[in-house]
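question for whoever is on the cluster today: can someone run the full assembly for these? two chains, 586 residues total. i dont have access anymore since they changed the login thing
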Amino acid sequence: MSDLTKMSAAQLAKAIAGKEASAVEVATAHLDRIDAVDERVHAFLHVDREGALAAAERVDKGEVTGPLAGVPIAVKDVIATKGVPTTAASKILEGWRPPYDATLVERLRAAGTVMLGKTNMDEFAMGSSTEYSAYGPTNNPWDLGRIPGGSGGGSAAALAAYEAPLAIGTDTGGSIRQPGAVTGTVGAKPTYGGTSRYGLIAFSSSLDTPGPCARNVEDAALLHSVIAGHDPRDSTSIPQPVPDVVGAARLGASGDLSGVKLGLVKEFAGDGSEPGVLSAFHEGLEALVKLGAEVVEVSCPHFEYALPAYYLIAPSEASSNLARFDGVRYGLRVGDDGNRSLEEVMSLTREAGFGPEVKRRIILGTYALSSGYYDAYYGQAQKVRTLITRDFQSAFERVDVLVSPTTPFVAFPFGSRTSDPYQMYLADLFTIPTNLYGGPAISVPCGLSEGLPVGFQVMAPTLADDRMYRVAAALESAVGTLTPPAL
Amino acid sequence: MAAISREEVAHLARLSRLAVTEEELDRFAGQLDVILQSVARIGEVAADDIPPTSHSVPLTNVYRDDVPTPCLTQEEALSGAPDAFEGRFRVPRILDEED
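^ ran it for u. tokens below:
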């Protein structure tokens, strides 16, 4: 067997089903790789060696079958895993072991995947670099002195470091796609409501969307098809069949895009993007044109207000969602000396348990929701959200998908954007409009700039997740996947 | 002019149940001011007659059949609690001594 950690999820599933490799061998190879490199990468907050080997043994005994039987997977630490520590990279949940599994974790187990552990992230998924993790940042396997993107930097870095062939992320403003872009991996945000939020620790409930991370488009589609679908335990889950994303990825890989119209958003042109990012993006665009696609310029005049709208809506929802961390039902409690009141203990607990970015967003959200400011901020942001949705809808009357760079800049050095929080927010300039609209979008590598990966974003209409997989797979067939330097 | 004052940030922190330090107040006030100045651009959009979107999925009143299914046991529900007493969550005192 060649190096098991270099194989794709589809290849591993086939090898295990064909008894060319055992699930235990595959799990062991990945656990050993984690032992060898994760001290330098720090993609994982918790490695569940025992649980992974037990799950792999069940596959080898034939007790568990499924489309991804025996394929290892890493899960972002914001998703509840029964009996396995789940912290959302926050001190306030240090040591918490959920008494239940998220719906998507149940589905991953049913599909036969072997969970290796939980991946690092910005605390409560708020950030674009993992520098806001309470447990220290993840290092980008392409250059250990640079950020792996965020919030799901751990999941993306685990893929790029060959610690896992598949990973789960969550995307509220770009937290799957931007890490995918800067680590040279693939990350897809499904249609909002296409994947269940049950068991996902809520950040911004109207935007949070779990989704697949992989090293190639077909693997991402395979994982997408396993986790997606209606869940009665999530009232925003869409009661409709999952689009045939795997079929679409295979169709795209055949390399024919004739008749497909790609929309180039006029308002994104030159909007703070690094020149190297723009040139890699345009090379990707030319590759798609050679496959038969047509490029049409479209105007989305309200996209320039997406970032302000997002930074009012998401913190508002977060300020409400994070009220549950009160030191009563789970997690940390500080200052309970028998004399202090509940309110004092709560305030001391939250002060000690939350990091600076989480506190900033809670305060910002409380401000935007307070009477006197509500109409000018939160209310206005919700109206702008309608206008952004209309921009998408009218663009999709003319084109099949919209395309853009995933993020304006390649992986930046640690510490270069933490002093001014707004500079960090700019990383999500191109990913945020999709979250406000609710449609699906994917990031796929399109080349390098200064030796670092650049991501190409494909955005599709709601419920047309298959369309983005087709275009992404076509691009991959033309430009190939990226191989990071050896660690 | 600053969009938000240090005093306002202190008030919001109290409302948010965050016992922030003096040093944090200084830092957050400056940072939140930069963020608010940037997001205030949202006011430029003429949107008076535009309906708000709270959610991208147009679903209301989602019901399902009321079928009992197994749920967490009392022990499981209390398993992550920082303090429990006689099968319940124990909380610090809620009333002042004189109440």
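summary bc i know u wont read the tokens: Chain A has a mean pLDDT of 96. The first strand of chain A starts at residue 44 and ends at 47.
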